[in-house]
Amino acid sequence: MGCGLRKLEDPEDSSPGKIYSTLKRPQVETKTETVYEYVLLDFSLEGSRPTVQYVSSLSELPQALQPYYTQGYVLTALHPIILSVGRTRSLPFSLLYRAILARPRPSKQMASMCHSVPMLKVEEWPLPGDSLTGDTVRALIDRVNSSARGGVRFVGSVLQQVSGVTNGRVHSPKRSCRSPPRTPPRTPPGDRELEENTYSPDLRLLVFFHAWAPGCAPLDSLACQYHQGALSMRVSRKGQVVSALEADWLELTAAYYRKGWSLVDSFVYWDTPRGEPVPRSLEGLFVYEERSTSPPANDTIVVEQWTVIEGSNVKTDYGPLLHTLAEFGWLLTCVLPTPIIRHDSDGNLATKQVVFLQRPVRGQTAGHSRNQSSSNVNRNPIPAEELSPTAGGIGGFPVFGGGYPSALSHLEEGGFEQEEGKAEVTCM
């Protein structure tokens, strides 16, 4: 008998997703005092469709989301649905973005809290160079902390290209992604596809904050601090394109969740400079929020989920599972899009995303719960069943979600059972 590193997932794996949690399944499905309601909205920078709202720039989101804010929803995450990183040209739907909003389910006891709903604000920050680096991200976190000292809370960020002209062609100022590709070198005559699709982006980071009217901010929203945490993944590639990834999500985040911090954003350096060896791992940074109060430790769920686009609409995504977990008090705080893209058996475009949810540890003091949570880790993934979104909306906006039967009931029985040992090691 011997032990070896577990292989990366089969690139042709057709399973809809994997779920990791610090808890066993019965604990995941335990009711809490808080129940969340979610709204999932898709926005496009290149035109509207029946289930997609058009905006000319993501800086218009505060106005577009205002009808939801008046009903107590707030933005918890924003991410591009498709990343074209490492490819010679952008893929369809590269200008499609998902906004996730959440609110605690209204109750009589919460009626007096309506005054604390924040305002969503956006700032546009220039970036040096043509891609994110560790130094630029750390500088950005310093700037976020400077803003937070003024009484605002950081919600998240997204990259957007504002201009670019290459080879005599004017490129859309709306093209953007989480970490855009570096400008490919000029190629010999004849390689028209690569030549015509190179571009030199002028990048801006759109940074979203929540702000309150004077005297209306919740006490735990004052003087928040933001910290960086390591993010590393093992990857396999087809050429320059990432085709599979694997990370010890719970190991990477556990120490921060035990402190009661919240994961609010992520940055991954997807780009590989031309001419350099293709790495087998990728690095990045998580951004965590520390509140001025001393909240209890957090348990967490991490979902690796395939999103499938049929025609011009999202057919399958993490929405149904999110609505089910909302009934048990799980709050989505971050979504990490990836450049893993393929076609399903029906020819639909599919991409993988990593979803992070958290919930305070239940029934223990903060200090005790932090110690308990560290050893209560289920490191083995659970296959998730495919689930389809439904449509509805507020004020004419399209929204994915609605009333779902328990998505967890479709998961493999016993899937949340713990096992000893680390996730990356398999005994043979």
From TrEMBL:
Disordered as annotated region, ranges = 1-20, 165-196, 363-388
Instruction: Tell me which family the UniProt entry assigns to this protein.
Output: Belongs to the raftlin family.
Annotated InterPro entries: Raftlin
Query: Which source organism?
Result: Labrus bergylta
**Name of the protein:** Raftlin family member 2
Q: Which UniProt keywords apply?
A: Cell membrane, Lipoprotein, Membrane, Myristate, Palmitate
Compartments (UniProt record): Cell membrane
Indicate, by first and last residue, each region the UniProt record lists as having compositional bias (Low complexity): 369-380
Q: How does it sit in the membrane?
A: Lipid-anchor
Q: Which Pfam families match?
A: Raftlin
Q: Does the keyword Lipoprotein apply?
A: yes
Q: Mind telling me which GO cellular component terms the entry cites?
A: plasma membrane
Give the signal peptide as a residue range, or say none if absent. none
